[in-house]
Design brief:
This protein has 65 residues and is an alpha+beta fold. 22% of the residues lie in helices and 15% in strands. It has a two-stranded antiparallel ribbon with strand order 1-2. It is globular and about 30 Å long.
């Protein structure tokens, strides 16, 4: 993977069209978290294509699934 400062969070936000990748509802610029689509603990990479927007509650509920 790459360090967080190399990830362009604006591109991740734009790629998700401002919607949570888990519940598909709008998520604000100031309230989103970043979710690893395939969790790091399951071998997913820390790369931009494996990241999606998520509400904090959605991300927490998903855990490492």
């Amino acid at each position: 993977g790459v360090p967080w400062d190399v990830i362009d969070l604006r591109r991740v936000y734009a790629a998700g069209n401002g919607k949570c990748g888990i519940c598909h509802q709008p998520v604000g610029l100031r309230e989103f978290t970043i979710d690893h689509i395939t969790p790091l603990s399951k071998g997913g990479p820390h790369l931009e294509w494996n990241l999606q927007l998520a509400h904090r509650r959605c991300n927490s509920a998903k855990g490492n699934k």
